[in-house]
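User: My collaborator sent over this chain with a note saying "see what the structure looks like." That's all I know about it. Can you take a look?
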Amino acid sequence: MAVSLPLRTRLKAWWHGYDLEVIRRFKGFEPLENNHGVSFEAELQPWEKPELLVPQLIWGEGFLTPGGASRTAELVKPLGLDESMSVLDIGSHLGGQARLIARDFGSWVTGVETDPELTEVAKLMSEKEGLGKKALVHRFEPSSVEFRQNAFDVAVSTDALYRIEDKETLLSAVDEALKGRSQIMIADYVRDSDVADSTALDAWVKAEPGPVHLWTERDYRSLFTDLKFDLRICSDVTDTLRSTILASFSEYLKEAATSGVEDRLRETLVGEVERWMRLVAALDSGAVKALRLHAFRAQRSSLLSDW
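Assistant: Without extra context I'll predict from the sequence alone. Here is the result:
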C-alpha cells in the first residue's frame, strides 16, 4: 500500500536536493464545530487563498517575493522619500511595498500590476489598512500603458520586470511619467550571458508561474543612458538575496515543524519551496544574477532651443 510522505520529509528532501516520488492524497476540509453542535466552514479572505497565503507566511504580510518589508525598506532608503513625494510602484503584486512606502514615509503611491486577481486583492488589502487612497493599485498592460506625464518623483520596481517582455516600451512610458528631477530604483533578475550552461536557469524558468524574460546588466545600462539617467548604483546583490531566501525558509520551516501546517496549504508550500530552491540553484550557477539599480536625473532635457 502506497503512503504519502510527510510534509516535513518532502520539504527536507527538496531543501537538500533529493528527488522523492510522492503519491498525493486529497483530503477534504473538516468543518469547524462550535459548542452548540453547529458545523460550519470558516470564511477565508481573498488574500488567504493557499497560493497567496503561503508566500506571505514566508516573506511577510503583503509580500510574494523574498525579503518582505525589511528588504523594501533597505531598497528605498537612498531615495529620500517623504510626504511631499509621489511614487510609481511597477509590479505591485499584493501591494506590500506600496503600503510600506505610504505608511512609513507618507508618500503617495500608485501601484500598477499585470495580474487582475492580484490587483483586486491588493486593493482590498490597502483598504483594510486604511490606505485605499494613498497606496492604490491599478491593473495595467505593460506594452500599451500610458501614465500621466510629469506625475511622479520616483519609480520603483522589485522582482517584477523579469516577467515583462517589452521592458523598453514600459520604461520609456515610466520616463515620461516622471518629473524632470526624478529617480528610478529597480531590483530585478538578469541573465549573465558569459555563463554558457543554462541547465539551472532552464529549471528555474520551468518552475516559475509565468513567462520569464531576462535582460542583461548591459541592457539596463544602455536603456538608462538612452533615457538620460545617471546610473548611480548597479550592484550585484546575488549573495545577499540568496542568503535572504535560505534564511527565510529555514526560519519558517523550523516554525512549521513545531506548529504544523494546515492541510490546505501543504501542496502549495511544497511547490513554493521547489520554486525558490530552483532559483537559488540558478543563482549559484552564475547564469542568473540579482541586480539593484538606482538611477537619478537632475533635470529633463529641453527639446526647445534658446531663443
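A starting point for your reply to your collaborator: The chain is about 40% helix and 20% strand.
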